[in-house]
């Protein structure tokens, strides 16, 4: 539920009422607190934008990694085709060499000039054959190295994928009892998305997690605290309804950041998770999952991502 709209009184009347009801020093304290809260809200919004920028940079790295893997597979296929073509040529040269040797044996007692020409042809053929053998050997070695590199990369990708499947199963067990109550799990693009709708976490218009929501978050934190190479991004999302006058939040950006920060604090304070693995970000109303369902759009998404540095280095090398 949103705050009900209340008819506004003229500012002059409100000021007189405040001056009449609140001592001057108390009014100054309240005004100072309001100014401080405004500063904190601006700082939180700035941090949220920085986090989004870092998240976008990580997505660029992931896209580049996928392109490099595809290029490596194409290069390996091309090298294999070239090697097979050279092998056929090598076989033909060997057959020709056998024919020339046969002629040489037959003509050995014949004309010396013809023998010299034949010997010259044989030497040229031998040198060409040696060059082709060296080229095939180099190509075979390069192909073997590419195939080994590709196999290692594919094995590492398989390990990462299996680790995320294991993580999904472990998180699912930890959150048994919350599915169907605003909780969904999805493994996508090498990441695990834990989506918690606001009805499971927050009262309307609030950034304070209720008791049931705290229980779900503590269970989640315990399930992932030992995965040292997993980064944890907590995103806050709102619907398109505007913040009503009188709220402590300036707008939906402010509300989404505050909710993400509340979730991060609970994860950190109730587990052994390294704080450097945690990031809080607010996405406001601009990333809806269902434009026709505001309830689904009001949510927290905990995005668990594996460390891709090792994979990136393998492709870069």
Tell me the strand percentage band: 5-15%
Spatial sequence of strands, sheet with the most strands:
1-2-5-3-4
The Cα radius of gyration reads 35 Å
Total individual domains: 2
Determine the CATH topology of the largest domain.
Answer: 60s Ribosomal Protein L30, Chain: A
The appropriate CATH architecture of the largest domain is: 2-Layer Sandwich
Shape: rod-shaped
The biggest sheet, with number of strands, parallel, antiparallel or mixed sense and barrel status, is:
5 strands, mixed
Q: Which class best fits the helix and strand makeup?
A: alpha+beta
Number of strands: 5
Helices and strands, in order, run as: HHHEEHHEHEHEH
- Poorly predicted residue ranges: 1-9
Provide mean pLDDT, rounded. Answer: 83
Summed up, the helix count is 8
CATH classification, class level of the largest domain: Alpha Beta
What is the end-to-end distance? Answer: 55 Å
Short précis:
This protein has 8 helices and 5 strands; from the N terminus they run αααββααβαβαβα. With 317 residues, the protein is of the alpha+beta class.
Q: Would you give an account of this structure?
A:
The N terminus is likely disordered. The protein has two domains: 174 residues, OmpA-like domain (60s Ribosomal Protein L30, Chain: A), CATH 3.30.1330; 93 residues. With 317 residues, it is of the alpha+beta class. It contains eight helices and five strands. It is rod-shaped, with a radius of gyration of 35 Å. Helix 2 runs antiparallel to helix 3, helix 2 crosses helix 6 and helix 3 runs antiparallel to helix 5. A hairpin with a 2-residue loop joins strand 1 and strand 2. The chain has a five-stranded mixed β-sheet with strand order 1-2-5-3-4.
